[in-house]
Amino acid sequence: MNWLIEKMAEGGETFAVIFKEKEYSYTSLYQQVKFYYEDVKKQFKPGDVVAILSDYCFESIALFFALHENHNIIVPITTKVKAEIDDRLKVSGCSYYIEINNSNSSWKATRITPTGDIHELIKKLEQENRSGLILFSSGSTGAPKAMIHDLDNLIDTYKDKKSKRLVFLIFLMFDHIGGLNTLLNCLSMNVTMVFPDTREPDHVAHLIEKYKVNILPASPTFLNLMLISEANLHYDLCSIRMITYGTEPMPDSLLLKLKDAFPRVKFLQTFGTSETGISATSSYSSTSTFLKIDDPNTEYKIVDGELWLKSKTQIMGYLNSSMEKFTTDGWFKTGDMVEQQEGGYIKIVGRNSEMINIGGEKVLPSEVESVLFQMPNVKDCTVYGEYNPVMGQMVVAKILYDEEIKPSKLKKLVMSFCADKLAKYKIPAKVLIMTEAEYTERFKKKRI
What we know:
alpha/beta; 30% strand
């Protein structure tokens, strides 16, 4: 058994997984991995590409590590949309997909015939007897990209961590690099992991209260949903020591609201990409969106305002896309635009693909959103660009307002409030009213 599975054995009776209010010890997880491994090695040969159709649960975690031990290439798939599942199975060249019966901890593997030739990167892993991981991008700007990692290499970066007595809530999903980062980090430290079976604010807050969760990793969008729902007022969340946030820019004014709601909590901004893995970071302070990349496995540089990364955990390549985002000497162009500050701190201000061009003047949605969040009665907002025949684009703001209001009146309030805070071309030319918060299945802003 590899080092991480042996680390599970060291956890003993400490709770490893809490899911649907059922508690599983590290000993139970270790035994389940060993039990599944006996079946896995009979059904699959090393190098087979195997999909797990599941989000996090005790069984999916045990299967993941049984497949890793068998040197398989694993494809976690959480979507329930059949067309999306079929596409991921096809693109990744899966030989099997696994469905789990949570009621009796059993699983069933279905054989499928891959179409086309085996990809060279999959052949490489098979020849070197190494396990792999295939993740898909969100597909927000085109078809989802299939990225293949050397899973052995990824897991080894968590080696030699000391055990800690902490309780984490695992918020990000099984097929998300951030969610897997939290999982591997937790297992390497033998901490307790609480998994929500829904990601609604009230349910998450209930779990935090019941299991005295210490660390909550989440997205800015979800953290704002906690404030909108007032779940932080309805439940005792005093056990939280740290909230980490990432996956999208955090508006400065929203961070201040969150710090006001959780005054004793440390806020840490995380950063990473599916292509390069998650890098260790430190925040300038709990009220600052400036961060420093403090990771011996990651190098970075800024080129024309864009963050470029090179890491020891970056992907081997894409299965269905060119490597145009990578330079010939291995730098990954993240597409994230940054500001710099003394001391090596940087601030993620937005994606270059989301930049709004107003007659040649550039506008970042996060800058406008940060101002709008300061307005009384604004509970949520999303800013994006829309075609304009004269200026090329115009700034559009969708706003969730705390009371009934006519769009024309809200627009006047927005223009008045922003007048001395934003340049004229940055002020929303069009204001729409949201009836409820809008977000993607990964709890990120849904930009048009």
